[in-house]
């Protein structure tokens, strides 16, 4: 049946990784390792992976692709600042590591700084005193373009409670803390090709991949073919058409 805000499940999947397609995974991975202070390691799929050094609870994988980045990503990190000096320090470090300033339509009076990594993936360094991110760590949020429905979907899929639901905007957060995942509501950006960012999720230990896929289908997801071939993970899209992968339990 279609998902509702009151829907409950005895089993939810967990977020294994945020995956980022990259033309040069090592270059982008080194940049983010330097910005975040996370450990960089090799990835089984010929990319690299960042291992969290905080309460984020998920890895960041940079996976090889030959496709160029087209348009603005549908999600980006909001990095927090304890003070103006701290904000300036983060911006300076990012620029030193190969980042750059970009214009995504931000207003002159807005106090956050918009940057991009070496392959143009956008992120923001938020000004101090931001109340919404006050209790978050350095990665304050993964801020996404998305509908209210997709916020509800991911709340049910991951078992993370809604921490914001107002004016078509939604946000969820893991029960243990970590970054908030937000969706800004309409109007939505047009989707151009495969999303450059996607989630890897998996059933809990002892869970069943097929049963989890069926649960996600009931919540509003769909199977997808992106040319993955014969693999042991299942590619799906959420209600907004954004890809994610359901892995086998480890």
Automatic annotation (TrEMBL):
Q: Which InterPro entries match?
A: Glyas_Bleomycin-R_OHBP_Dase (IPR029068), Glyoxalase_6 (IPR041581)
Q: Which domain of life is it from?
A: Bacteria
The Glyoxalase-like domain is annotated at: 18-126, 147-247
Recorded hits in PANTHER family, A to Z, give:
CONSERVED PROTEIN, HYPOTHETICAL FUSION PROTEIN
Question: This chain belongs to which protein, by name?
Answer: Glyoxalase-like domain-containing protein
Q: Which organism is it from?
A: Actinokineospora terrae
């Amino acid at each position: 049946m279609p998902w509702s805000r009151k829907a409950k499940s005895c089993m939810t999947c967990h977020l294994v990784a945020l995956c980022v397609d990259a033309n040069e995974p090592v270059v982008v991975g080194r940049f983010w390792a330097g910005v975040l202070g996370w450990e960089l390691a090799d990835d089984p799929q010929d990319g690299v992976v960042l291992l969290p050094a905080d309460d984020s609870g998920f890895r960041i994988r940079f996976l090889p692709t030959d496709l160029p980045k087209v348009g603005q990503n549908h999600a980006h990190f909001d990095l927090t600042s304890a003070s103006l000096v701290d904000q300036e320090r983060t911006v300076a470090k990012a620029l030193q590591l190969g980042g750059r300033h970009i214009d995504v339509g931000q207003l002159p009076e807005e106090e956050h700084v918009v940057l991009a990594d070496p392959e143009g993936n956008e992120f923001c360094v938020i000004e101090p005193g931001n109340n919404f991110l006050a209790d978050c760590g350095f990665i304050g949020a993964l801020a996404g373009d998305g509908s209210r429905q997709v916020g509800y979907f991911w709340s049910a899929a991951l078992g993370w409670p809604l921490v914001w639901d107002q004016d078509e905007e939604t946000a969820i957060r893991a029960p243990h803390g970590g970054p908030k995942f937000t969706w800004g509501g309409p109007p939505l950006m047009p989707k151009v090709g495969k999303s450059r960012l996607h989630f890897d999720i998996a059933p809990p230990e002892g869970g069943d991949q097929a049963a989890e896929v069926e649960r996600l289908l009931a919540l509003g997801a769909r199977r997808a073919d992106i040319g993955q071939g014969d693999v042991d993970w299942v590619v799906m899209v959420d209600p907004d058409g954004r890809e994610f992968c359901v892995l086998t339990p480890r």
